[in-house]
Amino acid sequence: MLMFYLVLTTISHICASIFLAKPRFGKLLTVLIWGAFGVIFLALPEETASINYHLTLVLNFILFLLVTKGRLVEKGFLFLNYVCMYNFCGAILNCFVIGRGSILIQVIMILVIMGALQYIMYGIYFPAFNKVSPYLNKDWPKYYAVVIIFFALIMMETVVPDVVREMNVRESIIFFTTIVAFLITCISMFSGMNHIAELYKEKREKVQMELLSTQVEAQAKEVETARRNRHDIRHHYSMLLSYAKDGEVDRIIEYLEEQTEAIDSEKPLRFCENDTINNIIRVYHQKTEAGSIKLDVNVNIKPILGVTNPDLVAILANIMENAVHGAQDSNILEPWIVLNIYHKEDRLVINCENSCDRKNDYTEMPNQSYGIGINSIISTVEKYSGSYRFSASNGTFKCLLIMDA
Length: 405
Description:
The protein is 67% helix and 10% strand. With 405 residues, the chain is of the alpha+beta class. It has three domains: 2-203, no CATH class; 218-266; 275-404, Heat Shock Protein 90. Helix 6 (140-158) runs antiparallel to helix 7 (169-245).
Protein backbone atom coordinates (compact mmCIF):
# COMPACT_ATOMS: atom_id res chain seq x y z
CA MET A 1 0.00 0.00 0.00
CA LEU A 2 2.82 2.38 0.82
CA MET A 3 4.39 1.72 -2.59
CA PHE A 4 1.05 2.45 -4.27
CA TYR A 5 0.91 5.77 -2.40
CA LEU A 6 4.51 6.58 -3.36
CA VAL A 7 3.78 5.88 -7.04
CA LEU A 8 0.80 8.27 -6.95
CA THR A 9 2.94 10.81 -5.11
CA THR A 10 5.60 10.55 -7.82
CA ILE A 11 2.97 11.06 -10.54
CA SER A 12 1.54 14.03 -8.62
CA HIS A 13 4.95 15.70 -8.28
CA ILE A 14 5.77 15.15 -11.95
CA CYS A 15 2.37 16.50 -13.06
CA ALA A 16 2.87 19.59 -10.90
CA SER A 17 6.31 20.13 -12.37
CA ILE A 18 5.03 19.81 -15.95
CA PHE A 19 1.65 21.54 -15.81
CA LEU A 20 2.33 24.46 -13.45
CA ALA A 21 4.59 26.04 -16.12
CA LYS A 22 5.44 25.61 -19.80
CA PRO A 23 8.12 22.95 -20.47
CA ARG A 24 11.39 24.38 -21.77
CA PHE A 25 12.37 21.28 -23.77
CA GLY A 26 10.68 18.85 -26.16
CA LYS A 27 8.36 16.06 -25.02
CA LEU A 28 10.97 13.28 -25.20
CA LEU A 29 13.60 15.11 -23.13
CA THR A 30 10.98 16.26 -20.62
CA VAL A 31 9.75 12.68 -20.17
CA LEU A 32 13.32 11.41 -19.72
CA ILE A 33 14.17 14.04 -17.09
CA TRP A 34 11.05 13.47 -15.00
CA GLY A 35 11.24 9.73 -15.55
CA ALA A 36 14.72 9.76 -13.99
CA PHE A 37 13.34 11.84 -11.10
CA GLY A 38 10.57 9.28 -10.57
CA VAL A 39 13.03 6.39 -10.50
CA ILE A 40 15.20 8.18 -7.91
CA PHE A 41 12.14 9.03 -5.81
CA LEU A 42 10.90 5.44 -5.72
CA ALA A 43 14.37 3.88 -5.24
CA LEU A 44 15.14 5.71 -1.99
CA PRO A 45 14.98 3.45 1.12
CA GLU A 46 11.94 3.65 3.38
CA GLU A 47 14.11 3.77 6.52
CA THR A 48 15.18 7.36 5.81
CA ALA A 49 11.76 8.75 4.82
CA SER A 50 12.28 12.22 6.33
CA ILE A 51 15.69 12.67 4.69
CA ASN A 52 14.30 11.35 1.41
CA TYR A 53 11.50 13.88 1.55
CA HIS A 54 13.86 16.83 1.91
CA LEU A 55 16.23 15.57 -0.79
CA THR A 56 13.49 14.97 -3.33
CA LEU A 57 11.82 18.29 -2.44
CA VAL A 58 15.01 20.19 -3.26
CA LEU A 59 15.65 18.09 -6.39
CA ASN A 60 12.09 18.58 -7.58
CA PHE A 61 12.33 22.34 -7.13
CA ILE A 62 15.67 22.59 -8.95
CA LEU A 63 14.43 20.50 -11.88
CA PHE A 64 11.18 22.47 -11.97
CA LEU A 65 13.09 25.74 -12.36
CA LEU A 66 15.51 24.33 -14.94
CA VAL A 67 13.13 22.57 -17.31
CA THR A 68 10.25 25.08 -17.42
CA LYS A 69 9.72 28.50 -18.93
CA GLY A 70 8.21 31.54 -17.26
CA ARG A 71 9.08 34.05 -14.61
CA LEU A 72 11.03 32.70 -11.64
CA VAL A 73 8.89 34.65 -9.19
CA GLU A 74 5.71 32.96 -10.47
CA LYS A 75 7.19 29.45 -10.59
CA GLY A 76 8.54 29.71 -7.06
CA PHE A 77 5.18 30.91 -5.73
CA LEU A 78 3.30 28.06 -7.41
CA PHE A 79 5.77 25.47 -6.16
CA LEU A 80 5.49 26.64 -2.54
CA ASN A 81 1.70 26.51 -2.73
CA TYR A 82 1.81 23.03 -4.23
CA VAL A 83 4.09 21.80 -1.44
CA CYS A 84 1.73 23.22 1.19
CA MET A 85 -1.28 21.55 -0.41
CA TYR A 86 0.56 18.27 -0.92
CA ASN A 87 1.72 18.16 2.71
CA PHE A 88 -1.87 18.72 3.77
CA CYS A 89 -3.07 15.75 1.70
CA GLY A 90 -0.04 13.64 2.61
CA ALA A 91 -0.55 14.21 6.35
CA ILE A 92 -4.21 13.18 6.11
CA LEU A 93 -3.25 10.00 4.27
CA ASN A 94 -0.37 9.13 6.60
CA CYS A 95 -2.37 9.72 9.76
CA PHE A 96 -5.86 8.53 8.89
CA VAL A 97 -5.80 6.29 5.80
CA ILE A 98 -2.63 4.28 5.15
CA GLY A 99 -2.58 1.11 7.24
CA ARG A 100 -6.17 1.55 8.44
CA GLY A 101 -9.09 -0.56 7.23
CA SER A 102 -9.29 -2.82 4.21
CA ILE A 103 -6.93 -2.44 1.26
CA LEU A 104 -9.84 -1.51 -1.02
CA ILE A 105 -10.93 1.35 1.23
CA GLN A 106 -7.34 2.56 1.52
CA VAL A 107 -6.94 2.54 -2.27
CA ILE A 108 -10.21 4.42 -2.75
CA MET A 109 -9.33 7.04 -0.10
CA ILE A 110 -5.83 7.55 -1.53
CA LEU A 111 -7.26 8.00 -5.04
CA VAL A 112 -9.95 10.40 -3.80
CA ILE A 113 -7.58 12.58 -1.74
CA MET A 114 -4.80 12.64 -4.37
CA GLY A 115 -7.41 13.34 -7.07
CA ALA A 116 -8.80 16.21 -4.99
CA LEU A 117 -5.29 17.66 -4.76
CA GLN A 118 -4.91 17.58 -8.54
CA TYR A 119 -8.33 19.14 -9.07
CA ILE A 120 -7.68 21.95 -6.58
CA MET A 121 -4.29 22.76 -8.12
CA TYR A 122 -5.13 22.45 -11.84
CA GLY A 123 -8.87 23.06 -11.87
CA ILE A 124 -9.15 25.94 -9.40
CA TYR A 125 -5.86 27.33 -8.14
CA PHE A 126 -3.78 27.40 -11.32
CA PRO A 127 -6.47 29.02 -13.59
CA ALA A 128 -7.16 31.66 -10.93
CA PHE A 129 -3.44 32.31 -10.54
CA ASN A 130 -2.90 32.65 -14.30
CA LYS A 131 -5.68 35.22 -14.43
CA VAL A 132 -4.10 37.58 -11.93
CA SER A 133 -0.34 36.84 -11.91
CA PRO A 134 0.59 39.26 -14.76
CA TYR A 135 -0.56 42.19 -12.59
CA LEU A 136 1.43 41.45 -9.42
CA ASN A 137 4.89 42.83 -10.24
CA LYS A 138 5.39 44.97 -7.14
CA ASP A 139 3.06 42.96 -4.87
CA TRP A 140 4.97 39.67 -4.93
CA PRO A 141 6.91 40.20 -1.63
CA LYS A 142 3.81 40.35 0.56
CA TYR A 143 2.25 37.28 -1.08
CA TYR A 144 5.52 35.37 -0.82
CA ALA A 145 5.82 36.30 2.86
CA VAL A 146 2.39 34.84 3.61
CA VAL A 147 3.02 31.58 1.72
CA ILE A 148 6.51 31.10 3.19
CA ILE A 149 5.15 31.50 6.74
CA PHE A 150 2.53 28.80 6.13
CA PHE A 151 5.07 26.66 4.28
CA ALA A 152 7.35 26.74 7.34
CA LEU A 153 4.48 25.99 9.75
CA ILE A 154 3.16 23.08 7.71
CA MET A 155 6.64 21.64 7.19
CA MET A 156 7.35 21.76 10.95
CA GLU A 157 4.04 20.11 11.77
CA THR A 158 4.19 17.33 9.16
CA VAL A 159 7.84 16.67 8.32
CA VAL A 160 9.70 17.28 11.61
CA PRO A 161 10.80 14.92 13.03
CA ASP A 162 9.44 12.23 10.67
CA VAL A 163 7.37 12.46 7.50
CA VAL A 164 5.42 9.28 8.27
CA ARG A 165 4.83 9.77 11.98
CA GLU A 166 1.35 9.74 13.46
CA MET A 167 -0.08 12.86 15.11
CA ASN A 168 -1.71 12.86 18.52
CA VAL A 169 -5.02 14.68 19.09
CA ARG A 170 -3.41 18.00 20.04
CA GLU A 171 -1.06 17.95 17.05
CA SER A 172 -3.94 17.07 14.74
CA ILE A 173 -5.99 20.04 15.97
CA ILE A 174 -3.06 22.42 15.50
CA PHE A 175 -2.32 21.02 12.06
CA PHE A 176 -5.90 21.27 10.78
CA THR A 177 -6.22 24.76 12.26
CA THR A 178 -3.11 25.73 10.31
CA ILE A 179 -4.55 24.28 7.11
CA VAL A 180 -7.89 26.07 7.57
CA ALA A 181 -6.00 29.32 8.15
CA PHE A 182 -3.92 28.65 5.03
CA LEU A 183 -7.03 28.04 2.89
CA ILE A 184 -8.77 31.15 4.23
CA THR A 185 -5.61 33.17 3.59
CA CYS A 186 -5.41 31.80 0.02
CA ILE A 187 -8.98 32.97 -0.60
CA SER A 188 -8.13 36.40 0.82
CA MET A 189 -4.94 36.61 -1.27
CA PHE A 190 -6.80 35.82 -4.47
CA SER A 191 -9.48 38.33 -3.54
CA GLY A 192 -6.74 40.98 -3.28
CA MET A 193 -5.13 39.78 -6.51
CA ASN A 194 -8.46 39.96 -8.31
CA HIS A 195 -8.94 43.52 -7.08
CA ILE A 196 -5.60 44.46 -8.64
CA ALA A 197 -6.56 42.71 -11.89
CA GLU A 198 -9.89 44.56 -11.96
CA LEU A 199 -8.08 47.89 -11.63
CA TYR A 200 -6.03 47.03 -14.71
CA LYS A 201 -9.15 46.02 -16.62
CA GLU A 202 -10.95 49.23 -15.66
CA LYS A 203 -7.99 51.30 -16.80
CA ARG A 204 -7.78 49.41 -20.11
CA GLU A 205 -11.53 49.75 -20.68
CA LYS A 206 -11.33 53.48 -19.94
CA VAL A 207 -8.60 53.95 -22.53
CA GLN A 208 -10.51 51.84 -25.06
CA MET A 209 -13.63 53.96 -24.52
CA GLU A 210 -11.57 57.11 -25.08
CA LEU A 211 -10.26 55.64 -28.32
CA LEU A 212 -13.74 54.63 -29.41
CA SER A 213 -15.13 58.08 -28.59
CA THR A 214 -12.33 59.76 -30.54
CA GLN A 215 -12.93 57.45 -33.49
CA VAL A 216 -16.67 58.16 -33.45
CA GLU A 217 -16.05 61.92 -33.20
CA ALA A 218 -13.59 61.79 -36.10
CA GLN A 219 -16.00 59.83 -38.27
CA ALA A 220 -18.87 62.17 -37.39
CA LYS A 221 -16.68 65.13 -38.32
CA GLU A 222 -15.75 63.50 -41.63
CA VAL A 223 -19.43 62.82 -42.41
CA GLU A 224 -20.35 66.40 -41.54
CA THR A 225 -17.51 67.74 -43.70
CA ALA A 226 -18.58 65.58 -46.65
CA ARG A 227 -22.21 66.69 -46.24
CA ARG A 228 -21.16 70.36 -46.11
CA ASN A 229 -18.90 69.95 -49.12
CA ARG A 230 -21.73 68.35 -51.13
CA HIS A 231 -23.97 71.25 -50.13
CA ASP A 232 -21.36 73.86 -51.06
CA ILE A 233 -20.08 72.30 -54.26
CA ARG A 234 -22.82 73.96 -56.37
CA HIS A 235 -21.66 77.37 -55.16
CA HIS A 236 -18.02 76.48 -55.90
CA TYR A 237 -18.95 75.45 -59.45
CA SER A 238 -20.89 78.70 -59.94
CA MET A 239 -17.91 80.75 -58.77
CA LEU A 240 -15.46 78.87 -61.02
CA LEU A 241 -17.85 79.15 -63.97
CA SER A 242 -18.13 82.92 -63.42
CA TYR A 243 -14.31 83.30 -63.38
CA ALA A 244 -14.01 81.13 -66.48
CA LYS A 245 -16.56 83.20 -68.44
CA ASP A 246 -14.58 86.33 -67.59
CA GLY A 247 -11.31 84.63 -68.58
CA GLU A 248 -9.84 85.16 -65.09
CA VAL A 249 -7.55 82.14 -65.02
CA ASP A 250 -5.45 83.54 -62.15
CA ARG A 251 -8.55 83.94 -60.02
CA ILE A 252 -9.55 80.31 -60.75
CA ILE A 253 -6.10 79.05 -59.69
CA GLU A 254 -6.15 81.17 -56.55
CA TYR A 255 -9.64 79.98 -55.66
CA LEU A 256 -8.72 76.30 -56.17
CA GLU A 257 -5.60 76.70 -54.02
CA GLU A 258 -7.68 78.23 -51.22
CA GLN A 259 -10.19 75.37 -51.38
CA THR A 260 -7.43 72.74 -51.41
CA GLU A 261 -5.83 74.30 -48.34
CA ALA A 262 -9.20 74.38 -46.56
CA ILE A 263 -9.87 70.70 -47.36
CA ASP A 264 -6.38 69.68 -46.19
CA SER A 265 -6.86 71.50 -42.90
CA GLU A 266 -10.05 69.51 -42.24
CA LYS A 267 -8.55 66.10 -43.01
CA PRO A 268 -8.21 63.87 -39.93
CA LEU A 269 -4.68 63.41 -38.64
CA ARG A 270 -2.97 60.30 -39.95
CA PHE A 271 0.20 59.19 -38.18
CA CYS A 272 0.51 55.66 -39.59
CA GLU A 273 -1.33 52.93 -41.50
CA ASN A 274 -2.11 50.84 -38.42
CA ASP A 275 -5.57 52.01 -37.36
CA THR A 276 -5.26 51.13 -33.67
CA ILE A 277 -1.93 52.87 -33.18
CA ASN A 278 -3.13 55.82 -35.26
CA ASN A 279 -6.25 56.21 -33.09
CA ILE A 280 -4.24 55.98 -29.87
CA ILE A 281 -1.86 58.72 -31.04
CA ARG A 282 -4.80 60.88 -32.16
CA VAL A 283 -6.30 60.66 -28.65
CA TYR A 284 -3.06 61.74 -27.01
CA HIS A 285 -2.38 64.36 -29.68
CA GLN A 286 -5.56 66.04 -28.47
CA LYS A 287 -4.44 65.73 -24.85
CA THR A 288 -1.01 67.18 -25.56
CA GLU A 289 -2.54 70.09 -27.47
CA ALA A 290 -4.91 70.77 -24.58
CA GLY A 291 -1.98 70.62 -22.14
CA SER A 292 0.38 72.76 -24.27
CA ILE A 293 2.79 69.82 -24.64
CA LYS A 294 4.85 69.55 -27.81
CA LEU A 295 4.37 66.10 -29.39
CA ASP A 296 6.78 64.79 -32.03
CA VAL A 297 5.69 61.51 -33.63
CA ASN A 298 7.57 59.30 -36.08
CA VAL A 299 5.88 55.98 -36.89
CA ASN A 300 7.06 53.62 -39.63
CA ILE A 301 5.40 50.24 -39.20
CA LYS A 302 3.38 47.62 -41.07
CA PRO A 303 -0.41 48.16 -41.29
CA ILE A 304 -1.03 44.79 -39.65
CA LEU A 305 0.97 43.67 -36.60
CA GLY A 306 1.24 40.40 -34.69
CA VAL A 307 0.10 42.18 -31.52
CA THR A 308 -3.63 42.16 -30.80
CA ASN A 309 -5.49 45.46 -30.69
CA PRO A 310 -6.30 45.21 -26.93
CA ASP A 311 -2.62 44.58 -26.24
CA LEU A 312 -1.58 47.53 -28.42
CA VAL A 313 -3.93 49.67 -26.34
CA ALA A 314 -2.48 48.28 -23.09
CA ILE A 315 1.05 49.09 -24.22
CA LEU A 316 0.91 52.33 -26.20
CA ALA A 317 -1.95 54.03 -24.37
CA ASN A 318 -0.23 53.47 -21.03
CA ILE A 319 3.08 54.72 -22.43
CA MET A 320 1.43 57.90 -23.71
CA GLU A 321 -0.61 58.38 -20.53
CA ASN A 322 2.54 58.19 -18.40
CA ALA A 323 4.38 60.45 -20.84
CA VAL A 324 1.66 63.11 -20.64
CA HIS A 325 1.68 63.05 -16.84
CA GLY A 326 5.49 63.10 -16.77
CA ALA A 327 5.64 66.06 -19.15
CA GLN A 328 3.04 67.95 -17.12
CA ASP A 329 5.08 67.36 -13.94
CA SER A 330 8.38 68.43 -15.52
CA ASN A 331 7.80 72.08 -14.54
CA ILE A 332 9.45 73.52 -17.67
CA LEU A 333 8.15 76.21 -20.01
CA GLU A 334 7.84 73.88 -23.00
CA PRO A 335 7.12 70.28 -21.93
CA TRP A 336 7.60 67.74 -24.71
CA ILE A 337 7.11 64.13 -25.81
CA VAL A 338 8.94 62.29 -28.61
CA LEU A 339 7.48 58.99 -29.84
CA ASN A 340 9.26 56.69 -32.30
CA ILE A 341 7.79 53.36 -33.44
CA TYR A 342 9.53 51.20 -36.03
CA HIS A 343 10.63 47.70 -36.95
CA LYS A 344 14.11 46.35 -36.35
CA GLU A 345 14.96 42.84 -37.54
CA ASP A 346 11.30 41.77 -37.55
CA ARG A 347 10.74 43.08 -34.03
CA LEU A 348 8.61 46.04 -33.03
CA VAL A 349 10.45 48.85 -31.24
CA ILE A 350 8.61 51.53 -29.28
CA ASN A 351 10.80 54.32 -27.99
CA CYS A 352 9.15 57.15 -26.08
CA GLU A 353 10.91 60.02 -24.33
CA ASN A 354 9.38 62.89 -22.42
CA SER A 355 10.40 65.76 -20.21
CA CYS A 356 10.14 64.91 -16.52
CA ASP A 357 11.01 66.19 -13.07
CA ARG A 358 14.81 66.48 -12.74
CA LYS A 359 14.59 64.79 -9.36
CA ASN A 360 13.98 61.52 -11.20
CA ASP A 361 17.37 59.91 -11.80
CA TYR A 362 17.80 56.16 -12.29
CA THR A 363 19.34 53.84 -14.86
CA GLU A 364 16.62 51.28 -14.17
CA MET A 365 13.28 52.34 -12.76
CA PRO A 366 12.89 50.79 -9.27
CA ASN A 367 10.09 48.23 -8.91
CA GLN A 368 8.42 50.15 -6.09
CA SER A 369 7.85 53.03 -8.51
CA TYR A 370 5.81 50.87 -10.88
CA GLY A 371 2.19 51.90 -11.09
CA ILE A 372 -0.76 50.18 -12.73
CA GLY A 373 0.24 51.51 -16.15
CA ILE A 374 3.85 50.31 -16.00
CA ASN A 375 2.81 46.90 -14.69
CA SER A 376 0.28 46.57 -17.50
CA ILE A 377 2.96 47.46 -20.07
CA ILE A 378 5.40 44.91 -18.64
CA SER A 379 2.91 42.05 -18.43
CA THR A 380 1.73 42.66 -22.00
CA VAL A 381 5.22 43.02 -23.49
CA GLU A 382 6.30 39.76 -21.84
CA LYS A 383 3.47 37.97 -23.67
CA TYR A 384 5.35 38.73 -26.90
CA SER A 385 8.79 37.63 -25.65
CA GLY A 386 9.68 41.28 -25.26
CA SER A 387 12.10 43.31 -23.20
CA TYR A 388 11.65 46.70 -21.57
CA ARG A 389 13.64 49.46 -19.96
CA PHE A 390 12.53 52.54 -18.06
CA SER A 391 15.14 55.15 -17.11
CA ALA A 392 15.39 58.83 -16.25
CA SER A 393 18.20 61.37 -16.21
CA ASN A 394 18.74 65.10 -16.84
CA GLY A 395 15.01 65.82 -16.95
CA THR A 396 14.25 63.11 -19.54
CA PHE A 397 12.27 59.92 -18.94
CA LYS A 398 12.92 57.14 -21.46
CA CYS A 399 10.77 54.10 -22.20
CA LEU A 400 12.15 51.49 -24.60
CA LEU A 401 10.20 48.36 -25.57
CA ILE A 402 11.25 45.65 -28.01
CA MET A 403 8.98 42.69 -28.78
CA ASP A 404 7.86 40.21 -31.39
CA ALA A 405 5.26 41.65 -33.74
